[in-house]
Amino acid sequence: MPTEEEMMSHFTGIGITEHDAMIIVDCIVTRKSCSWVNNDPVDDKLLRDLQDVIVKHGYRIKINVQPVPTRSKFIWEVKVLA
Q1: Nearest to residue 11, comparing CAs of 73, 40, 66, 32?
Q2: Model pTM score
């Protein structure tokens, strides 16, 4: 398993903000699902790159990001897989 710093680098390296990356890493390390809302932009390329990183490094999580168009926000959900 990569270190927390390495995981942060994997996520921020594809354009995930440091705040979002910290939450994702915390979910991986603690093995707890979590969700949050923010207004950092998310596009299809970022989501594809995020999925590629998850698969490449064997992170046992699933991430779903849903836009809230009326508020210019995004709901992030990280589910820990068994």
Answers
A1: 40
A2: 0.92
